[in-house]
Amino acid sequence: MGKIISFSNQKGGTGKTTLAANIAVLWSNSDYKVAVYDADSQKSFTHWIEARKKYYGENDIGIDLLSYNPHTFDQDLRDIKKNYNFIIIDSPPSITYESTQIVKNADRVIVPAQPSPVDFLATLPFLDLVKKQRKNVTVVLNRVLPRAKLTEAMILRLRYAGAKISRSRISSKVIYAETFSVGRGVVDISINSDTSKEIIKLGNEILRNF
Question: What's the domain count of the chain?
Fold first, then answer.
């Protein structure tokens, strides 16, 4: 039975779509069957899938994009869970009926957040929502700058707020944006690069915690 992972935060601009796409590529390239739901009205994940089809060909992208309908979402998940190892959901950047419904159905909630005071304040209400649903949630620090004092300060504040923080951190390297724009992930380029090692480490950490 497939595991359902949502990449969610009410704060926009945290890089959740790029992170979700890179994890989808990692698992697909590792011979897992992967599907994605694009529940974000901006449809960035859908545009990424379309770019990926142009790059690799219509039938050779390794990832299935499923049609998201909030009115039938619960039943849709029950119908397709058996067909995939992982179902990744790119959630809307808000606290709405849709985002609450996604959290409710997820086996694991990944909350990307940039190490800034604005992200910290915006992330806390969403973490409270997830806790009320009694879901397994992990904050992933994304777009982390090297030697940034803000990163350690945010970690301390998140821990004080009771948040679980991943050991894996994702850097702000431009290769993430460059590969995303053409429908690729960093592990498509080389599994030995520093950015690929970041994604592999995070992917393995998510798997270990199921």
Answer: 1
